[in-house]
Each structure stands twice: as structure tokens, then as C-alpha cells.
Amino acid sequence: MAEDDFENNAIEEADYKDDAILGLIVLELKSHILVALKALQIAE
After folding, report:
1. Which pTM was predicted?
2. What torsion do the CA atoms of 20, 22, 25, 29 make, to the nearest 10 degrees?
3. Could you state, in order of their start, the residue ranges of all structural domains in the chain?
4. Interatomic CA distance for residues 34 and 28, integer angstroms
5. From the centroid of its chain, how far is CA 29?
6. What single-letter DSSP state applies at residue 27?
7. Each residue's pLDDT tens digit in the chain (44 positions)?
């Protein structure tokens, strides 16, 4: 029983790490998009 709990916790932690990584990737992409949009506005 305790082993199952440990395994579930490990899986949940892995999910949180994946979400955190995805969150960072999304933030990076958003910042790149904003920079690109500003560059386009300046170019116009």
C-alpha cells in the first residue's frame, strides 16, 4: 500500500514538472512573440 502511494506521488510530481516546463516554454514563446510584434510595428 505504501509503495503504491509513493509511486503515485512520484507520478504526480513528474506531472507537475512537465507542467512547469510547459509553462516556461509558453512564457518564452510569448516573450518572443511580443518582441517580434514590436519589431514589426517599428518596421512599419
Report:
1. 0.56
2. -130
3. 1-44
4. 10
5. 10
6. H
7. 567 787 878 778 878 888 889 999 999 999 999 999 999 998 87
